[in-house]
Fold this sequence. Notes:
- The structure is a single chain.
- The protein has a single domain (5-240), classed as NAD(P)-binding Rossmann-like Domain (Rossmann fold).
- The N and C termini lie far apart (42 Å).
- Helix 3 (98-127) runs parallel beside helix 4 (148-169).
- It is of the alpha/beta class.
- Strands 3-2-1-4-5-6-7 form a 7-stranded parallel beta sheet, with helices on both faces.
- The chain has 7 helices and 7 strands, in the order E-H-E-E-H-E-H-E-H-E-H-H-H-E.
- The structure holds NADP nicotinamide-adenine-dinucleotide phosphate.
- The site of NADP nicotinamide-adenine-dinucleotide phosphate has 29 residues, from helix 1 and strand 2.
Amino acid sequence: MNVLDSFRLNGQIALVTGASRGIGAAIANGLGEAGAIVYGIGRSAEMEAPGAFQYRQCDAREAVEVKALLAEIAESHGRFDILVNAAGITLPGNDADPMVSFQSTLELNLTAAYACCLAAVPHMQRNGRGSIINVTSIGAGLGFPGNPGYVASKGGLAAMTRALALDLGGQGIRVNNIVPGYVHTAMTHGSYSDPELNAARAGRTMLGRWGRVEELAGAAVFLASPASSYVTGTDLHVDGGWSAKGL
Ligand SMILES: NC(=O)c1ccc[n+]([C@@H]2O[C@H](COP(=O)([O-])OP(=O)(O)OC[C@H]3O[C@@H](n4cnc5c(N)ncnc54)[C@H](OP(=O)(O)O)[C@@H]3O)[C@@H](O)[C@H]2O)c1
């Protein structure tokens, strides 16, 4: 196969969670532009901006609903190929009841991602192939202050990826992490808007700037496509060099 053709996703069917805006929407658009038929879900009634994918209102924590949606998608296309778990929340600084923030964060960022994998895998097994992409964070491997639930959820998600990659590799299903650094979205708008915090985050990278949501799309297309056919159980950092930087 020509190397450029190996990045094409024509005929493949994808679901992206957390696609109403931000990184999930950019990834869903990227997969659509690469030729896949893409469905995106979020709790919002509508997606923030029009995109190259079909948006459905669905809470990723509702395992029964997600399972039914995936069954409907797989049945109507006769296949299902790509799952991207991008839905995520961060709930820093709830000192009054830290357990509430911790459990709510894990419920979506980790438990729901696992439930989505469980719902998607049987359809991928029928194809004899598939790609699962989990959107973790530089917080999966590094300490960040004041938000242990987020760090734990992303560390757990990164570890779950390696476990599932091992369990599913023999069935042609690959599982990988995309590891974003600081990207300007609704989630990070507070620190992006604060000149001091903005400069500190930019200065911590090798490229000296924040990431843009569309810069995550190429990584997702690579991991979803035959271009990465021998890549599984790994972390693809899209962080401007944050994780590799010493001084
Ligand atoms: N931005 C960054 O710098 C950064 C860095 C590292 C990792 N990440 C990760 O990247 C992912 C996307 O984050 P983002 O920055 O794009 O944040 P965002 O703009 O806040 O987007 C989060 C997305 O998740 C969806 N979501 C939240 N709860 C959901 C639920 N229960 N069911 C379904 N969808 C749900 C939101 O849609 P609704 O509100 O409509 O449900 C939205 O589409 C997250 O996993 C985040 O942890 C972001």
